[in-house]
Write a structure and sequence with these properties.
It contains no helices and seven strands. It has 88 residues and is mostly beta strands. The strands form two sheets. The chain has a four-stranded antiparallel sheet, with no helix packed on it. The protein is elongated and about 45 Å long.
Length: 88
C-alpha cells in the first residue's frame, strides 16, 4: 500500500510485578529510539511500536527486520523473537 500509514506493535505480556528489566533488540542490536526515528517504546517499556512500515523505503532502506525482547528478573529471563515482513 504505497502512501498509506501502517505500524507494527510488539507487546510484552509478562506480568509487570515480576518484571525487573526489559530490552528490545532489532537485528540483535539494542534498540535506542534515538537511533530509530520510526520506533517508540511505550506502555512503561512493555511495547515497541514501529510506525510507517514499508517494504522498500526511501533511500533503499527496508523495514523487514527481526525484533527480539528480553524480559528478565532475579529468577531468570524470557527471550522472544519476531520477524516483521512487509508484503507490499
Amino acid at each position: 500500500m504505497h502512501g498509506s500509514q501502517c505500524f507494527v506493535v510488539l507487546h510484552n505480556t509478562i506480568h509487570p510485578i515480576i518484571l525487573v528489566s526489559q530490552t528490545f533488540y532489532v537485528e540483535f542490536m539494542c534498540v535506542s529510539v534515538n537511533d530509530h526515528p520510526k520506533m517508540s517504546i511505550v506502555d512503561d517499556g512493555r511495547e515497541l511500536q514501529v510506525r510507517d512500515v514499508c517494504k522498500e523505503c526511501q533511500g533503499g532502506l527496508s523495514d523487514l527486520m527481526v525484533v527480539q525482547c528480553n524480559a528478565s528478573n532475579n529468577h531468570g529471563y524470557a527471550f522472544s523473537s519476531a520477524y516483521i515482513n512487509v508484503l507490499s
